[in-house]
Automatic annotation (TrEMBL):
Keywords: Cytoplasmic vesicle, Endosome, Hydrolase, Lipid metabolism, Membrane. One of its GO terms (biological process) is signal transduction. The gene is LOC109105668. It is an enzyme of class 3 (hydrolase). Belongs to the inositol 1,4,5-trisphosphate 5-phosphatase type II family. The keyword rRNA-binding does not apply. This is phosphoinositide 5-phosphatase. Its EC number is 3.1.3.36. Residues 499-671 form the Rho-GAP domain. InterPro entries: Endo/exonu/phosph_ase_sf, Ig-like_fold, IP5, IPPc, OCRL-1_2_ASH, OCRL1/INPP5B_INPP5c, Rho_GTPase_activation_prot, RhoGAP_dom.
């Protein structure tokens, strides 16, 4: 905890919204920050270590205490802290306190350090220590995690991140573990982009948009990035290492090539690599991988930075540590931090107040908009679209703007639309770009699919003490099976996009079959059959790769992800919401569970039995795909039996238990081939 000085940037940005005058003072202080701050250098020790699921077996001092003088900050990242199934499924591991203690014992002995933050996602952990005397100047601490592993969401791969304010500089630190295997560099690129997009830190003022990684003065990125050496045979690589010809080897490094092409880490810097690759060694030795796979050595473990006033003092590996098949890496950075000069701050503040006092406050604020009508063409489910409106302050005074709700409406826009930023401040003669973003998710798709709602909205941009401006947002949504009900899809013979909205609307309101011969509903939606049939034919022996790994290129991974997304987007799940309480009540009784399934609406019952038969078929090939009942239940239970409200831990366990009864085959269960529709 800290009590930041009044001039702290985060303190100013978090001040209550007292009105135009206070926001103007705040804005002018930020704009003139250089007038009352100076740069002071602090040392940051960054370390990354993939420990391959091992326990700490040796002192970490050769790594963490390798600097001549104690650093001001420690930011220590681990990957593969725990490789067990329990850590993956429940995000709990006894190895966290073990490695935390090992780090604490390994810190530089010539200073006292305080633990500021620990954040972990499965096996990805980041520890943040600071010299005790600096702790009072740290504020705005936030932590976030994002999984990019199983189905692009689970935590076997991904990142953990922290952001904080130190004096007047904001800093973000990311520890990531990206996709593996030499040929998967494009997947690693996508993981990086997903992490940058999905990690968002909330602000104290909840009306302000979240902060992304790149919105910070300083970004420090470390971890097992998993980029490999390309186009060289293993013996050639080892020969170059023996000759210490790291320059030639580095020219074949995938991360260097991707950065040179500005595909990833644009604006980041990495120091010169003058140490041998840190992967892969035989555990407990300095010998290269002698296993059957004989991995090509690579610089998997990296440290990069982005920002001004940063100087790297060292970048090295630590060969004496032999616990893992990786070697730890460290970087010592000297970072210039903005520190407030109290006298200069007071003088600047008084000058700003005097200037505002002289301004004519009786002028009416005015702005001009670059456009007032926006049309979003061919909007699709879960595909983001954005357009920009520029707002220019053409009046004589500063102004404060905000999108406000229309009469009798709770929010300023429809749920599929957002404006970013939704409010702000404009000095005279300045402009701001506001992104109008359209994103249709599972909550908004059903009514758009059926034509009950349209992509139509009017935004009201309000100026404090000024007039309102109206922005029209329209578009056309392409209906899809995602977000459509099972009953509707069973009635469709054609693609939903090819059918008139009136027809779909009639089907939703009247599920009766008008012509039993030609309009008879299908047993299950053709979309489910197509996805399951593909996986059954081409991936049943590799389904763990297809369903539970982000590393597989090609259609199997895409189809598996589409299946899970389809089930998650159903407006009424496979087991309808109305049956949810009964299912929880009887979750421990297999016969009662089966009795509930027997009374489901016909199309829901058909889909449930079909999917269960598919999962049972996968279990027959467990020797190849390494799946078991527990893993499949963990993935599918929450999709087949979804709660209408947020689940607690007890409910999640009951839901899993309910579904597990059906994954254990009985004599009455039929083979998947018998359940395939004609």
């Amino acid at each position: 905890n800290s009590q930041p000085i009044l001039s702290n940037k985060s303190q100013m940005l978090g001040m209550p919204q007292f009105g135009l005058r206070d926001n103007l003072i705040k804005c002018e202080l930020l704009k003139n920050e250089d007038a009352y701050t100076y740069i002071k250098n602090y040392s940051f020790f960054l370390g990354t270590y993939n420990v391959n699921g091992q326990n700490p077996k040796e002192s970490l001092s050769p790594w963490l205490a390798s600097t001549a003088t104690p650093p001001d900050f420690y930011l220590v990242g681990f990957q593969e802290l725990d490789l067990s199934k329990e850590a993956f499924l429940f995000n709990d591991t006894p190895k966290e306190p073990e490695w935390m203690l090992a780090v604490y014992k390994g810190l530089h002995p010539d200073a006292k350090y305080a633990l500021v933050k620990l954040v972990r996602l499965v096996g990805i952990m980041l520890l943040f220590y600071v010299k005790a005397e600096h702790a009072a100047h740290i504020s705005e601490m936030e932590a976030e995690t994002v999984g990019t592993g199983v189905m692009g969401r689970m935590g076997n791969k991904g990142a953990v991140a922290i952001r904080f304010q130190f004096h007047n500089s904001d800093i973000c630190v990311v520890n990531s573990h990206l996709a593996a295997h030499t040929e998967e560099f494009e997947r690693r690129n996508q993981d990086f982009k997903d992490i940058c997009r999905r990690i968002q830190f909330r602000q104290d003022d909840l009306t302000l948009p979240p902060l992304t990684i790149m919105k910070h003065n300083v970004v420090l990125w470390l971890g097992d990035l998993n980029y490999r050496i390309s186009d060289l045979e293993v013996d050639h690589v080892k020969d170059l290492i023996a000759k210490k010809d790291f320059e030639t080897l580095y020219n074949h490094d995938q991360l260097k090539r991707q950065m040179d092409e500005e595909v990833v880490f644009v604006g980041f810097t990495e120091g010169e690599i003058d140490f041998q690759p840190t992967y892969k060694y035989d555990t407990g030795s300095d010998q290269w991988d002698t296993s059957e796979k004989c991995r090509v050595p690579a610089w998997c473990d990296r440290i990069l930075w982005r920002g001004k006033n940063i100087k790297q003092l060292h970048y090295q590996s630590h060969m004496t540590l032999k616990t893992s098949d990786h070697k730890p890496v460290s970087s010592l950075l000297e970072i210039g931090i903005k520190v407030v000069n109290e006298e200069s701050y007071k003088r600047t503040f008084e000058e700003i107040v005097r200037h505002i006092d002289r301004m004519e406050n009786d002028c009416i604020p005015s702005v001009s908009l670059s456009e007032r009508e926006f049309f979003f063409q061919d909007v699709k489910f879960m595909q983001h679209q954005a357009k920009t409106v520029s707002v220019y302050n053409d009046g004589q005074v500063p102004c404060q703007f905000e999108f406000i709700p229309k009469l009798d409406e709770p929010t300023y826009c429809k749920p599929w639309l957002t404006a970013n930023p939704a409010k702000g401040f404009l000095a005279q003669g300045t402009s701001v770009d506001i992104d109008l973003e359209v994103f249709v998710n599972r909550s908004t798709a059903p009514e758009l699919n059926s034509g009950q709602q349209q992509l139509e909205d009017i935004l009201v941009l309000h100026l404090e003490r000024g007039k309102d401006y109206f922005i029209s947002v329209t578009g056309n949504y392409l209906p899809s099976c995602f977000g459509s009900s099972l009953s509707t899809l069973c009635l469709l013979r054609e693609r939903i996009q090819d059918m008139p909205l009136e027809t779909i609307r009639d089907m939703k309101s009247n599920s009766q079959v008008s012509n039993p011969e030609t309009d008879k509903p299908q047993d299950i939606p053709k979309e489910i059959w197509m996805m399951v049939d593909h996986l059954f034919r081409y991936a049943k022996k590799q389904v763990r790769i297809a369903l539970f790994s982000s590393l597989l290129a090609g259609s199997n991974h895409s189809v598996a992800e589409a299946l899970l997304l389809f089930l998650d987007a159903l407006p009424d799940p496979v087991i309808p919401f109305s049956f949810y309480p009964q299912c929880l009540d009887c979750c421990s009784d297999s016969s009662r569970c089966r009795q509930i399934i027997s009374v489901l609406p016909q199309c829901h019952k058909n889909v449930f039995n079909y999917l269960i038969a598919f999962l049972q078929e996968l279990l027959k090939h467990s020797a190849h795909n390494r799946l078991d009942v527990s893993i499949l239940a963990s993935i599918f239970a929450g999709l087949l039996l979804r709660s209408p409200t947020k689940q607690d831990l007890t409910e999640k366990r009951k839901v899993k238990e309910f579904v597990q009864h059906f994954l254990v085959q009985t004599t009455s269960d039929r083979d998947i081939d018998e359940k395939l529709p004609e």
